[in-house]
Amino acid sequence: MLSQVTNVDEMYAGMKEKLANVVPDVELHYKAEIAVEINKLKKERNAVILGHNYMEAALFNSIPDFVGDSLELSRKAAQTDKDIIVFCGVKFMGETAKILNPSKKVLLPSNRAGCSLAESITAADVRALKAKFPGVPVVTYVNTYADVKAESDICCTSGNAKAVVESLNTDTVIFLPDEYLAANVARETGMHIIFPTRALTPPPLPQGEGAGGEGKMIGWTGRCEVHEKFTVNDIETVRAQFPEVAILAHPECSPEVTAASDFSGSTSAMIKFVQDSKAPQYLVLTECSMGDNIAAANPEKDMLRLCMVRCPHMNTITMEDTLNALKLDRYIIDVPEDIRVRAARAVQRMIEIG
């Protein structure tokens, strides 16, 4: 594993083997030196590094001890016996690690690594919805801050959202805050979705099995600033040039986009789809860096690029800042204990569903 390598030549060779077609050679030389310094310091400080699938390719393929989506990394954060958790992701992910393993020091390499979804809702918003719909269980996407999780009955990821909603065995559920993920889950579970904060009726969901059922889902109007940019026109344009392409869309894309795609799933589910299938080309509609990481892991696959934008928050996590996080103990993630305890119940229920 490159996450254990402390020799620059060995690190460079390993990174080049994986990334020669993705990252320029001059950058690999430079990054290899930083990666080795990080690995040495990580061992000295008894630290573990978690890397989300959206990390840039040189970082993702070198220093993390574990990589994956939010659910996978939440499990690793809960299980680690290391003294320090360095989370190469965004703030809500670092908070989740602290929620699950409060005795550990959790470091986030950038203090600018936020999230448009997490910023779209507050704990006060959740309390107001609960007052308006008393007794209705609240499902909160893991892409939220700790105080919002603390107001929730259970959290979910994009990979287990359907299973979480179905586990509640109820006709009505509040699902926060991503309106597109909520609409996609409503369609899959046969629920009718409403947005009480919206004056106008939202556009109808794509027709199909499970659309517009008897159950009711109460949604919010948050969106991911990356995934909302993908359109059906993008898909049609690509299919016109590559008729046999397999198009994969993250569930944070609009219901119209997921319906027009060949597969929709979490980042880990999309990675597995590419690994297991034999389409002539693939197009992944999600954060740009993940396309690079899939291409690096599957050099025999023909990965098309529709890289409209990197997540501006994930993009603030660099190898240089990861090194400084270990050197300078920055930036420390803290969650007030009363909030942490309540949020932990919701997150642990999510992990138990898997």
Description:
With 354 residues, this protein is α/β, with parallel strands linked by helices. The chain has 3 domains: 2-114 and 314-335, NadA-like (Rossmann fold, 3-Layer(aba) Sandwich); 117-222, 3-Layer(aba) Sandwich (Rossmann fold); 227-297, NadA-like (Rossmann fold, 3-Layer(aba) Sandwich). Helix content is 44%, strand content 13%. It is built from 16 helices and 12 strands. It has helices at 8-19, 25-44, 57-60, 70-79, 91-100, 116-119, 123-132, 146-150, 161-167, 179-189, 232-241, 255-260, 267-276, 288-297, 319-328, 337-353; strands at 47-52, 66-68, 84-88, 105-107, 138-141, 154-156, 172-176, 191-194, 215-218, 246-249, 263-264, 282-285. The strands form 3 sheets. Strands 6-5-7-9-8 form a 5-stranded parallel beta sheet, with helices on both faces. A 4-stranded parallel beta sheet has the order 2-1-3-4, with helices on both faces. Helix 5 (91-100) links the parallel strand 3 (84-88) and strand 4 (105-107). The chain is globular, with a radius of gyration of 20 Å. It starts with 7 loop residues before the first helix and ends with a helix. The relative contact order is 0.15. Mean pLDDT is 92; it is low at 199-212.
